[in-house]
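Milestone M4 deliverable, item 7.
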Amino acid sequence: MANSKRELFLKRRLRVRNKLRKVNKGKLRLSVHRSSKNISAQLIDDVAGRTVAAASSLEKALGVLGKNNVEAATKVGAAIAERAKKAGVEEAYFDRGGFLFHGRVKALAEAARDGGLKI
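Output delivered:
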């Protein structure tokens, strides 16, 4: 019985998240969501159940609205790193969800690292 693309994605997302949860040492989670047009990132405190910081390519302040490319992901990564510093967060673990670590997801992670966030 063949699984649909969506079902395979959801299984992969849960598998990644459960593995990360096992090695998590009280760090926050940098969760990434990528759609066909936009990308967003959130720093989530799973213990408290709240979002500490967030950034998205939909924000007009970042100036990447409507661009679905690596440049937009890089700006979102830099913004989330800056907002994490303001919130007093230095370390997080990277939750790519069910997305492969290449292209825009990789660009976001590298920009967050360059911005000073340890992931």
